[in-house]
Amino acid sequence: MIEFINVKKEYNHDVLALNNINLKIEKGDFTFLVGPSGSGKSTFLKLMIKEEEPTSGKILIDGKDIGKFKNKDIPFLRRKIGFVFQDFRLLYDRDVFENISFALRVIECSEREIQAQVKNVLQMVGLTGKEKYYPNQLSGGEQQRVALARALATKPPIIIADEPTGNLDPTTAKGIFKTLLDINSRGTTVLVVTHAMDIVNDLNKRVIYLDHGQVVKDEQKGGPKFDNENVFI
After folding, report:
1. Is residue 95 part of a domain?
2. CB distance 231 to 200 below 8 Å
3. What's the number of CA atoms in the CB half-sphere (13 Å) around residue 57?
4. How far apart are CA 51 and CA 3, in angstroms?
5. What are phi and psi of 16, to 5 degrees?
6. Whole domain around residue 224: which residue ranges?
7. CB atoms within 10 A of CB 24
8. Domain count, the chain
9. CA–CA gap between residue 104 and residue 133 (Å, rounded)
10. Stated pTM of the model
11. Separation between Cα atoms, residue 7 and residue 19, nearest integer Å
């Protein structure tokens, strides 16, 4: 589903962001990507959606070498990947329904499809009945659920959550991860970037640990738990 083959990324010919990354995330996996600030996590994500290009190496998404994609192919690549951000990135002058339906209108879904899919994803994230609420009428956790519903609306096979609970209290954060686990159980591949060591340890999923642009640990499900917060900050 996601494969990095000898991927290297340099900025300005002297800043090495990623160095010889080789890893594979299978379809349906739930994977954490962790590491201290500056370890290469953001670059990793940007390469996946062709916001940046690797200096060398190949990246395969669903078996296709995205390095061969032309500009016209990039929107189709990004439809395969639903992004959830720490700061929600909602449209605050539009209600919940409009925030979610926006992504569906971009890909020219019919009104019937939009109505059905918005209802479906709101049910998935536990926000049925909130269609006419505006973001500022919702709690932080509810806003993050709207962002998650928007990411799910186009039925992407991959969900990337970049610090999805960084601004949330522990109880709300656990609720967001419960929703991500439920989405994963339906077959969606989930990749989560997080600094939340307690959640990483509790969920007992695969953990890829980056440091100085290299994979220094790749712990499969059931591996040893982290006991040092310094690896996350």
Report:
1. yes
2. no
3. 22
4. 17
5. -95, 105
6. 27-45+75-232
7. 11
8. 1
9. 19
10. 0.91
11. 7
Q: Is residue 93 part of a domain?
A: yes
CATH number of the domain that 109 lies in?
3.40.50.300
DSSP the chain: -EEEEEEEEEETTTEEEEEEEEEEE-TT-EEEEE--TTSSHHHHHHHHTTSS--SEEEEEETTEEGGG--GGGHHHHHHTEEEEETT----TTS-HHHHHHHHHHHTT--HHHHHHHHHHHHHHTT-TT-TT--GGGS-HHHHHHHHHHHHHTT--SEEEEESTTTTS-HHHHHHHHHHHHHHHHTT-EEEEE---HHHHHHHT-EEEEEETTEEEEEEPTT-PPP--GGGG-
Give 177-213 pLDDT, tens digit per residue.
Answer: 999 999 999 999 999 999 888 899 999 999 999 999 9
Distance from C-alpha of 48 to C-alpha of 60, rounded to nearest angstrom: 9
8 A C-beta contact, residue 230 and residue 200: no
For residue 110, with 0-12 CB atoms within 10 Å meaning exposed, 13-18 middle and 19 or more buried, which class applies?
Answer: exposed
Question: Residue ranges of the chain with pLDDT lower than 70?
Answer: 222-233
Amino acid letter for position 50: K
C-beta separation of 194 from 164 below 8 A: yes
Looking at residue 150, its pLDDT comes to 95
